[in-house]
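Hi U.,

Before I forget, here's the chain from the pilot set. I'm dumping it here mostly so it's searchable later in email.
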Amino acid sequence: MPTGNGGSAFSVPTRFRLDIAYDGTDFSGWARQPGIRTVCGVLEDALSTVLRRSIELTVAGRTDAGVHASGQVAHFDAVGGIDEPQRLVRRLARFLPTDVRVKAISEVTADFDARFSALRRHYEYRFSTARYGVDPLEVRSVVSWPREIELDAVRDASARLIGLHDFAAFCKRRDGATTVRELQRFDWEQRGDRITAYVSADAFCWSMVRSLVGAMQAVGEGRRTPEWTAALLDTRTRSSSVTVAPAHGLSLVAVDYPAAHDLAARNSATREVRSAVPASEECC
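Structure:
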């Protein structure tokens, strides 16, 4: 079997990409923690058992406890490769708990890195404005917001945050971690009683997405102005005036990557920019 590095299948690791979905309700986030149920822990245990070798995953973005994903991406290396990756998808479907699924497994080049190759991450945050709250079938992934909402003001405030900024006011502090991010999309859509926020950036620091959404809730309810939101960009510490929105309304829906021939350059660029950011810093 050929390998991603062009060597012997029995000596050179082959890299595989996983496309993953999970309901984060009953997980304590992505990152493996001793004695605690996490997405990474469950997946690594299942893969290690099925493949009969120790598997360690590198992920595009470490989600917090209660946060969901339909478009999470991870990779792992396997010496000797894997026979029929899609067969492994079927085996994992029988082996994994129902709240996490590996949707696809594909062999990739050694330059592919789920974290450092990523161009941007896309999140969605979902609200219901229905007077009765949230439909029972969606209660684990939609947050109730049954109030009068000034959506035009929310859109105005969100647009003021687009671009490369220091988002320290919206991020929980981590020693040595940068809070400079390029927010590429932050807009809102309403269809009936469903409001969805679309948030995309090159990367996110800890609690950033939910803090952005929480700030917009204050604007939407008339408690704050769009100018207040923009002024927060001048703050270099976490702002106590920003409320973090509940975790269960948030989902990681996609991660973008460059073409294969651009992966190595992207890895180098990301590592240079993120050199001061610890691995555990990536979050939402």
